[in-house]
Specification:
This protein is α+β, with helices and mostly antiparallel strands and about 140 residues long. Helix content is about 40%, strand content about 30%.
Length: about 140
């Protein structure tokens, strides 16, 4: 019963609004903690990037629900593999709206070809490194 991590990217529907993001976070908090899942959801420039950590079956069930969510499309699985430890232990699901600050754009640029949040143009390793750095940035700021 080892730990696994799943990383995926998807495109937000153009009509996605703040109420939708709030609903996603509320349901994630409610469902993930009892399932033993931790993770991070990044949203910006019309894209979602998410990492889920926990038991393989719980991740699979959650990802199947996510893929069926009509608030996004073109979900692409970037990684699903065993891990030695969690990277997002403190969050049953933390959401970060990416690209609102200059420092975030600099972080994106370190891991991508430009400062636009386009995780679909990155590989799994780049996406994970980006998420870890964004999480650390927001933890330092207490957000």
């Amino acid at each position: 019963m080892g730990l696994h991590r799943l990383v995926y990217v998807s495109q937000a529907r153009p009509s996605l609004g703040y109420a939708d993001l709030f609903d996603i976070m509320e349901k994630s908090e409610r469902n993930n903690k009892p399932a033993g899942l931790t993770g991070l959801l990044c949203f910006g420039d019309g894209w979602f990037l998410q990492a889920l950590e926990g038991h393989r079956l719980a991740i699979s069930q959650t990802y199947n629900r996510i893929v069926g969510d009509t608030r996004h499309l073109n979900a692409e699985l970037l990684e699903f593999s065993p891990i030695a430890q969690r990277d997002f232990l403190d969050w049953s699901m933390k959401a970060i709206q990416v690209g609102q600050e200059k420092q975030e754009r600099e972080i994106i640029l370190r891991h991508s070809v430009n400062d636009m949040f386009t995780p679909v143009a990155m590989d799994a390793g780049q996406c994970l490194a980006l998420m870890k750095e964004l999480a650390a940035f927001h933890q330092r700021r207490g957000v």
